[in-house]
Amino acid sequence: MGGTPTPAETTSALQDAIADLKNTAREQLSAAWQIHVERVQERLLEGWAQQIERVFDERFEDLAARVEEQFQRKLAGELASAQSRSKRELTERLNQSFRRIAAAETASGWSAALLDATRDFAAIAALFFVSTEVLRCEAVRAAEDHPAQALIGREIPLGSAPAFASAVDSKDPVVAFRSPGELSEPVAEAFGAKNEGRAYLFPLLSRQRVVAVLYCEPGEQPVDSNGLELLCALAANALEERIRSKGASGLIGISAIESAVARETPWASLSREEQDMHLRAQRFARVQVAEMRLYKAGAVKAGRSEGRLYESLREDIEAGRQEFYRQFIATCPSMVDYFHLELVRTLANDDASLLGPDYPGPLV
């Protein structure tokens, strides 16, 4: 019958509105970080030392501008202040870490450099290689008497570790409960985790396959997911460059990675120029879709809820499709429609039906 809302109804509506704003902010910040990581990887191919400072300037300034627009001038000012204090320190640490990782000649050296670089971002870390549905613990960064040291060299069925399997399947970071049901009994027991706290899993990709997963735990300070995600991108880039320059045995002793590369027969048959074209196409697709998620958050939300993402974002999607065709499909016979794959994966959350009945489908 209408009337004045009760205090409880008003409170509930306010809580719903706040939750909705939080979800939108989380979506936009995730997209901004995706764009940031892709720009860093793109600049890595052009030269780390000369480009990384410029990348941080560009992406942090862009993110600061979007936050200012969405969440008031005060928050943007605080972000800009924090940026100026931490940017140089962060880039210097990442630069040093990347140089160590890139210079590694062996599996143990590469793993040790990667885990050592996680000290600024997590209390405990471990590296697991992925091969044929099996996880193999390669290295652990923890106290010498920590039970997790006994995991090194042990193989664990991927099917018994759902959180790891999710990271491998989605190729995205995963946050999981530190329990046997999520991590597997051996991993949970080794890390002393019986349904206590959370674990953070970061996949490392080589040639679009997850070849390793970085496991991290918080200590007195929370895990810095953004820093670890960027670190994994740097490490994966170093691995990719080593494999491309020296072949599958570029890092001596990483049998899991070597077998994963060996299974990539179609990729291995491509020329270096075609491989570079595919990698650029993948980055283009990820950036284009991330920008939709960042700048058109309202349309994305409405499109998902109504199952008509294409209709809600028709202009942006069509512009991206046409540019992807012009730059990549028209010039590379072996090209895959990575733009379509990215639309399904991150815009539609792996549910192609959310694109709607009007969506014309992949270009090839």
Structure description:
There is one protein chain. The chain has 364 residues and is α+β, with helices and mostly antiparallel strands. It has three domains: 20-103; 107-262, Beta-Lactamase (2-Layer Sandwich); 270-355, no CATH class. The chain contains 14 helices and six strands. Helix 1 runs parallel beside helix 7. The chain is globular.
Quick rundown:
The protein has 364 residues and is α+β, with helices and mostly antiparallel strands. It is built from 14 helices and six strands. α2 (48-103) crosses α3 (107-117).
CATH architecture of the largest domain: 2-Layer Sandwich
**What would CATH call the homologous superfamily of the largest domain?**
GAF domain
Order of helices and strands: HHHEEEHEHHEEHHHHHHHH
CATH structural class of the largest domain: Alpha Beta
Enumerate the spans where pLDDT stays under 50 for 5 or more consecutive residues. Answer: 252-265
**Average pLDDT, to the nearest integer?**
79
Which word captures the global form? globular
SSE layout and pairing:
Elements lengths: L6 H38 L3 H56 L3 H11 L6 E8 L2 E8 L13 E3 L4 H9 L3 E4 L2 H4 L1 H6 L7 E9 L2 E9 L7 H22 L8 H8 L2 H4 L3 H24 L1 H10 L2 H4 L1 H16 L8 H10 L17
Antiparallel strand pairs: 1-2, 1-6, 2-3, 4-5, 5-6
Helix pairs in contact: 1-2, 1-7, 1-10, 2-3, 2-7, 10-13, 10-14
